[in-house]
Amino acid sequence: MSNSTNNFYALSQSFSVSDIIVIATYFLLNLAVGIWSSCRVSRNTLSGYFLAGRDMAWWPIGASLFASSEGSGLFIGLAGTGAAGGIAVAGFEWNLKMLTCMCVCVFVQIVTMPEYLGRRFGGERIRTYLAVLSLLLSVFTKISTDLYSGALFVQVCLGWNLYLSTVLMLVVTALYTIAGGLAAVIYTDTLQTFIMIVGAIILTITAFNKIGGYGNLEQVYSMAVPSKIIPNSTCHLPREDAMHLFRDAVTGDLPWPGMTLGLTILATWYWCTDQVIVQRSLSAKNMSHVKGASILAAYLKMLPFIFIILPGMISRALYPDSVGCVDPEECVRVCGAEVGCSNIAFPKLVIELMPSGLRGLMIAVIMAALMSSLTSIFNSSSTLFTMDIWKKHRPQASERELLLVGRIVTVILVVVSVVWIPILQSANSGQLYVYIQSVTSYLAPPVTAVFTLAVFWKRTNEQGAFWGLMVGLVVGVCRMVLEFGFAPPRCGVVDSAPAVLRGVHYLHFAILLCGLTAIVVTIVSLLTPPPSQEQVHNLTWWTITEEPQREIPLQKVSSVSHRSSQGSEPTRRVTCGHVAGLCISALRRPEETPAPRVPSVRESVFWSRFCCFNALLLISINIFLYAYFA
């Protein structure tokens, strides 16, 4: 980050003793919850470490789904995009949050999405490709954006050294992720969800009191013009459609076709195929808990509009010269980025409005969001590597070896993340949330198309899926290279990008890319032999309730060929010692290790109806919100 930001950071208020106590208490409580949860669930079986023993209740899973999807990147990004363009970005939070209810039915006997496609299509190339793609996306989009936004917040509010603050959070995060597996992640996510909601409520109430209430928001936002502007330009003016969700299909910053169809494609990828989300749902006791967790997360996803996006708009209204700056020299002085400083909207509110003690709470909130997101990515990525890459090449690997590999992968991800920090500094821009969504639009739609056809069309085969993914990848990467080669121009600068780039919004591109992939998959599948009965039995929407043809122990699945692990090393039973709060492992013979329970897709009539009622209620609320703010 540019040294020119020192003037801005110098404005940060000094932290009091109470702020430091709050932050320290948060870290200690977080570690305590992580250690406690590590001791509750066996961490030395694959099901225990990667899926929390498949014995989690609906409420911690729902809280974890929410916390994992609201990382610090979204705290900073949503507030920043709200400050720059208004409420339309709320559509990303409201779009089809219940999709995971439907999709987890297919995954109920699976560990990862690549493993599902491996069983569905046979072979290894699709499974390996998707695992590698997911790992790359985790490192270079999820981890990088979370690290940047978290470090930005801490540096703005505390004035700490960027490397010191980031490394400290990474180390604490990695400790309980490596030690505890998914159970530690889910229980600490539950704690962090509570902290995030409480802190955001306090900040929102304080911010609205500052402007005189919600009724004044539109007026004060429309007048949020910086004192230093660029002549003969309009980029300093707030958008006239700032309070509308649906915007012009051609000139809108978030056009309505993209926010309906394109966003649905991205939401399907995230809620149905992204390992971070699917893995949490797979840890549930049964299908009723899966649906209950999804519904709880959907209710919680209503909150960011009020507690993140609207405060971002208030931040621009209160501090237009910093949050709404457009002059490149002024923006560099304020935040170190020529293209704008909307990303500082949320931390700016914290350091200006929050009193002593509560300011420390909000720092804890962002740390919670950062650590929640990172723990999710670390745990899920290690699962992908272990189950879909390592075990493929070492089918005879014992459980003990696979667990060790999973923990080593987490350490490697931490190291790569720290090495990535200098690149994050140089990549400081005012387009963080746009960056996240645009990269997703270039890479995710082919996966969505293949997954959807695999679930709903039994004729889809391996050749069609593979070549559809390859065509989609080539087209998506070409668009991404063009996007990075022609960065959005600064205010007042002529855009030299080709018309085909600026003329097709990234959400519209997602629609076209998904459609192209689906066409390729369909044509190739029809021109090649159909899949075998084994590849569709119990693996599509139409066959999911069929009785399994054979027992498939979770930890023994290597690929579609169902090779079993021959490792015979004794596994370990976890007991909790009372010295330094550590968990001590005791040897247990293999025959004493219970097989992981595979949850059933069947559920009681009462809870099925209860979940369906809440799902319909959520859809009704979504329709009302879209209509009210359209």
From TrEMBL:
One of its GO terms (cellular component) is apical plasma membrane. PROSITE patterns: NA_SOLUT_SYMP_1, NA_SOLUT_SYMP_2, NA_SOLUT_SYMP_3. The chain crosses the membrane at residues 20-36, 57-90, 96-117, 129-154, 160-187, 194-212, 254-272, 293-314, 361-381, 402-423, 435-457, 464-486, 506-527, 606-629. It is found in: Apical cell membrane. It is a multi-pass membrane protein. Keywords: Cell membrane, Glycoprotein, Ion transport, Membrane, Sodium, Sodium transport, Sugar transport, Transmembrane, Transmembrane helix, Transport. Electrogenic Na+-coupled sugar symporter that actively transports D-mannose or D-fructose at the plasma membrane, with a Na+ to sugar coupling ratio of 1:1. Transporter activity is driven by a transmembrane Na+ electrochemical gradient set by the Na+/K+ pump. Exclusively recognizes sugar substrates having a pyranose ring with an axial hydroxyl group on carbon 2. Has likely evolved to enable renal reabsorption of D-mannose, an important constituent of oligosaccharide chains of glycoproteins. This is Sodium/mannose cotransporter SLC5A10.
